[in-house]
Design brief:
The protein is of the alpha/beta class and 367 residues long. It has four helices and 17 strands. Helix 1 crosses helix 2. This is Matrixin family metalloprotease.
Length: 367
């Protein structure tokens, strides 16, 4: 009897977002990650048997990805762009006390897994997998130790994972055809935070949607919103040295014409100061009925995904969004209604057509 192993892992993403009274087609929640000030990202020099040229290129691309986020955020700031400072440097080994978030290169994830990278917190760490996965025999994820991901893919993975480090969750649609289009299209996706790296990885870029979501998370104080530090004053723009003006020839003074009395100008109403989004924990639990499955060619099994929303964060009628990442990098998004007490449940069918490998399951709630 031929059996195939299917493993489920859970990544519970505790998030909060602005309340919406109706179902939305697009979901872009936030996680509970918050930087507590301008942070230093440290790229650990790859130590595997990688050429010096490739090592230098990967480090440079990762540094560029941090700088791309900083530039995008500063370009959107009208007053003091110092509140969006981000720093990056290369270090030879991990556990450097001067680093807030380390970025490490590894060859591949665990057995039968195809994840491109991940962000973990706390402490802050990004891992980028540099070997290109494929499906052996059309079903089993595997790796060729000689096939490296492209430079564009390394940059795209870094951009995406740094987005997670800023507090961004995935940008998903409840229409799975739209999610597939973003991944396979010849056009840039609407966000760097779509769940999978596009087929043409160079198309993934930081967009206005991403920048405004980060600004929504941290508010008008930027990365100082969750720190006890004083926001630095903006650097004054130096005044240009004026050119000497020649003395004009005096003209005869005409008789003054009385000016009409101007109407008083009303005082402008000040714009409200954006407040940062305080991270909450709406998901109290989420479980998978079976985390390791052996399905033979004749049987099928039903897997239950279930959980509960915290009472304080529960809004009747809002759905839970469950994202399932399959071993072939495809995703399925489920929009699940909750009961009146915040309980939710979804059923997955595993049969002979299901891919073998690791399935990553995450849940978010737009409460």
């Amino acid at each position: 009897m031929v059996k195939k192993a299917i493993i489920f892992t859970i990544a519970i993403l505790v998030i909060t977002s602005n309340f919406q009274a109706v179902y939305a087609e697009i979901f872009f929640p936030t996680t509970n990650v918050r930087l507590d000030g301008p942070s230093t990202y440290c790229v650990i020099t790859p130590t595997d048997e990688i050429s010096d040229e490739k090592t230098r290129q990967w480090v440079r691309l990762t540094e560029n990805s941090v700088q791309a986020w900083e530039t995008s955020l500063k370009n959107a700031e009208f007053e003091n762009d110092d509140i969006w400072d981000m720093y990056v440097k290369e270090i030879p080994t991990e556990n450097d006390d001067s680093c807030d978030i380390e970025i490490e290169f590894k060859d591949k994830p665990g057995l039968a897994d195809t994840v491109a990278g991940y962000f973990s917190w706390p402490p802050g760490k990004i891992v980028i997998y540099y070997l290109q996965p494929k499906l052996c025999n059309g079903l089993i994820p595997c790796y060729d130790d000689e096939t490296l991901k492209s430079d564009n893919a390394i940059f795209a993975i870094a951009i995406h994972e740094i987005g997670h480090s800023l507090g961004l969750d995935h940008y998903v649609s409840d229409d799975n055809d739209i999610n597939k289009k973003w991944q396979s299209s010849n056009e840039s996706p609407p966000s760097a935070m779509i769940p999978t790296i596009p087929r043409i990885s160079s198309l993934l870029q930081i967009t206005e949607i991403d920048v405004q979501k980060v600004r929504e998370i941290y508010g008008s104080d930027g990365f100082y919103a969750f720190s006890g530090s004083t926001i630095p004053n903006p650097q004054p723009t130096p005044e240009p040295t004026p050119e000497p003006t020649p003395e004009p020839t005096p003209e005869p003074t005409p008789e003054p014409t009385p000016e009409p009395t101007p109407e008083p100008t009303p005082e402008p109403t000040p714009e409200p100061t954006p407040e940062p989004i305080i991270p909450l924990s709406p998901l109290t639990s989420m479980t998978v009925s079976d985390k390791f499955i052996e399905a033979d060619r004749y049987d099928r099994q039903i897997i239950t995904l279930s959980g509960r929303i915290a009472e304080d964060e529960f809004y009747r009628g809002l759905p839970v969004i469950i994202t399932i990442h399959r071993p072939d990098d495809s995703i399925e998004v489920l929009k699940i209604k909750t009961t009146g007490t915040g309980f939710f449940e979804a059923l997955l069918i595993i049969d002979r057509e299901s891919l073998r490998g690791v399935y990553h399951v995450s849940a978010s709630y737009n409460g």
